[in-house]
Each structure stands twice: as structure tokens, then as C-alpha cells.
């Protein structure tokens, strides 16, 4: 039996692959539980700097909820699933490491919501995105209405949620849903890793401080956010990596960061 979701480590980078290509990498109960397990494993490992989430095969990143499984679920089980999306997937936006969705094919419904839970998103030029839920008599239930509205604004989020239209990578980029579009000829996972090399190789304390500070901007008042930024700056100021960066600059060489 397939593993549903595969975890592979490449030094400080974790690559998490949804691996049910025969079902377009749809999210079953078991795959959501497995994602939660992976999140707990990665959270316990302070060497993880970057987590890339992608889909197996070329057609899909994730086609959303497993609609075949959903047919056999009671209303109570669906309610449990909605809670599980929240508890088992939240690590993607709360961990000490950066998360990025490398969208290699369609990301529909819960698939797009999963990508929206990540800090960053890249997409293959051939991939499309959409929220088909209202056409199925439901609404996005894995945070999509809230995260999309915060990312692109209420009006644009309403367009995508109410019309259910599928958008191409270029439109996703112009709306700000994705950060980068990679040509079809490139492997989106490898191109994403190259794009984010500075994250995986940068000063760990500064990278984490920047991540936590920017993430908090959506939750805090400006004054509280400025206080947090000051507090996080202090951690960098006290670090020996900061001294090393200044020394390396003066000596015209690459800094050697130690995360201290
Ligand atoms: N859950 C379970 N199985 C799914 C699935 C999903 N969300 N999406 C696709 N599959 C399965 C199909 O049933 C099919 O399996 P089968 O051959 O055993 O019937 C297989 O994946 C391939 O899908 P198919 O529709 O033949 O491929 P396609 O390239 O023509 O279309 C999609 C791909 C993803 C566009 C289309 O399958 C689709 O629209 N899926 C539903 C997406 C959706 O509405 N998601 C939101 C859920 S809230």
C-alpha cells in the first residue's frame, strides 16, 4: 500500500510529498492524520529550516478532499474531518521553519487551502487553482475563506469562492496567491529549492526572527507588531552570527553561520 504522504530529508530541508496520484493526491482522513504526524516529527527537530510540500506525479498537487471517501462518511465524521484540518495542518503556518507549497499540478478545494496554509507558494506554469466547493453545496472548510481573503482581499476571494472558476498560474501570480511561477520545462520542486536556497543557508536566528515577525503582522496591531519586531531584533543583535556577518563583509568572504 502507498504511504499516502512521504517525508524525505535533504539536510536542513524536509520534502513532504502527497503520494496518491491515482486519486489526484486527494486528502483522505488517513492522509490528514499522516500530515499531522509529520508536522509533529518536524517540530521536534530544530535542524529543519525549510519544509516543501508537493504532490506526486505531474497532474495534481492535490484535488482537495477525497470525494470517494467523503461519500461514505456520516455528517459526524465530516465534522471530525473539519476539526482535523485545523489541528493536523496548522503546523504549516506555525512552525519555526518556513513552509512552501510547490504546486506541481491542479490545486483544488482543500488542495488550494493546504497551499494557502503554507508561508509561501510556487507553481508550475501548467497548473491551475480553484475553489469548487460552493458548486458541491459546501464552502471551503480548511481555512480557505479566511486565508484567501487575508492574502488577496475580500473582493478577490469572493470572486474565486462564489464563481468556482479555475485560474491559471499567471493569474494566481498577478493576484498574489503564488510567489513564483516556473516554466513547464522545469521541475517545480527543484526550482523551488533553488529559489529558497538563501532561506536554507541563511543565518538561522535571523531567518526565524524574520519569519515570526512577518507572520505576526496579520494578527497584531501596528504597535504590538513593532514591539515584537524590536524584541526579535534583539535576538539577532545578541547572536554571534551577526558579528560573523559583519566580519565576513569586512574580509570580503562568505559568512559562516552557526545558528548562535
Ligand atoms: N477525491 C477522490 N478522487 C479524486 C478526486 C478527489 N477530490 N479528484 C480526482 N479523483 C480521482 C478520479 O475519481 C479519478 O479516479 P477514477 O479513474 O478511479 O475514477 C482519478 O482521480 C483521475 O481523475 P479524472 O477526473 O479522471 O482526471 P482529470 O484529469 O480528467 O481531472 C480533476 C482531474 C482534478 C480536475 C478532476 O478529477 C476533478 O475536478 N476532481 C474533483 C476536484 C474537486 O472538486 N475538489 C474539491 C473537493 S471539496
List the helices and strands and how they pair.
Blueprint: E1 4-10, E2 13-19, H1 29-43, E3 50-55, E4 60-62, H2 67-71, H3 75-89, H4 91-94, E5 98-103, E6 106-108, H5 110-117, E7 120-124, E8 128-130, H6 144-152, H7 154-163, E9 167-168, H8 169-175, E10 180-182, H9 188-195, H10 197-201, H11 204-216, H12 222-237, H13 240-250
Helix pairs in contact: 1-3, 6-7, 11-12
The chain binds coenzyme A.
Number of strands: 10
* Largest sheet composition: 6 strands, mixed
| Uncertain parts | none
Q: Which oligomeric state applies?
A: single chain
Computed over alpha carbons, the radius of gyration is 19 Å
Distance between the termini: 43 Å
Across the major sheet, the strand order is 1-2-3-5-7-10
- Give the bound compounds: coenzyme A
The coarse silhouette is: globular
Whole-number average pLDDT? Answer: 97
Q: Give the topology string: H per helix, E per strand.
A: EEHEEHHHEEHEEHHEHEHHHHH
Total helices: the number is: 13
Approximately how much helix is present in the residues? 40-55%
Strand content: 15-25%
Structural class designation? alpha/beta
